[in-house]
Amino acid sequence: MKKVASLFLIVTVPTIATFVPTFAYSQTQELSYPDNTIIDSDLDGLTDEGEKQLFGTDEKNPDSDSDGWYDGTEIIANTNPLDATTPSATTIVTTDTVSKEIPWSWYITRASGLIAFAFAWIVIFLGIAIRLPLLQRFIRPVYSLSAHFVLALHTILFSLLHGVSMLFDKFFRLSFADILIPFHTTALDPFALSFGILGMYGLLLISMTSYFKPMIPFKLWRAMHFLNVIVYTMIIAHALLLGTDLAHPIARSLFISANVLLGVLLIWNLSLKFFHYFQAKKQVIVAN
């Protein structure tokens, strides 16, 4: 259980600390978002379109006037993000900002999606690495079937949180049908969202076959587990097409690199399987 707790802390804490921004200003004026994509490239708490259409600040620089205060902080504090003399040492920040709405649902959606992906990546990485001779001695001390199940369960829980939190987003206004039925909504890219929905159902199906493994034929269980590749590919497509955090070049590069690593390990694993298969077949032929 300590191993499972350690894995949970290692994945969850850094992910939340890295990807969950602190505050954002909820604009009362109407904004237009091309392709329904909301991006905060400089992570200053203001969306790119908000900076361009409302505030005139630099969407690629979190501190447009270089006064040491982020643009989003100055908007909330009712100071000028384009004037380096504000806020001054005598500026009084009133409590009026408490009443301004913070888009917590958007933050929760982003954070839970990233955490769910991190868990999914670890589950698949451990599942592949434990079968590779070069990595077994490093993976075996922290790998167990129970840890595998717990990590998979956390993947599903954070995936559910990722979807349910979208119901509270006041911009997209999704319904239960939108997050449960593929190709139902038009508020977002239906294909991109459907990849996430189908990926979620795939995760549930694979996890259920694992928990009921003693009750089903081994070949069926094995065949269902091969669906991991298809399900994970859907998750990758969903993240790349809808993930606002992945619009940042560094985040996108890390995401792609992590998945390329999994692809290399998968090819390595399959190559070893084919090698052993043909080796055994050759020995049978020689023996006969």
Number of strands: 0
Intertermini distance = 50 Å
Secondary-structure class: mainly alpha
**Helix and strand run:** HHHHHHHHHHH
Percent range of helical residues: 55-70%
Q: What proportion of the residues form beta strands (DSSP E)? A: under 5%
Low-confidence stretches: 1-11, 13-28, 89-99
Task: List its traits.
single chain; 288 residues; mainly alpha; 2 domains; 11 helices; 61% helix; 0% strand; elongated; disordered N terminus
Notes on the structure:
There is one protein chain. The chain has about 290 residues and is mostly helical. The chain folds into two domains: about 25-100, no CATH class; about 105-285. The chain has eleven helices and no strands. The longest helix has about 40 residues, at about 250-285. It is elongated. It starts with a helix and ends with a helix. About 25% of the residues are buried. The model is unreliable at about 1-10, about 15-30 and about 90-100 (pLDDT under 50).
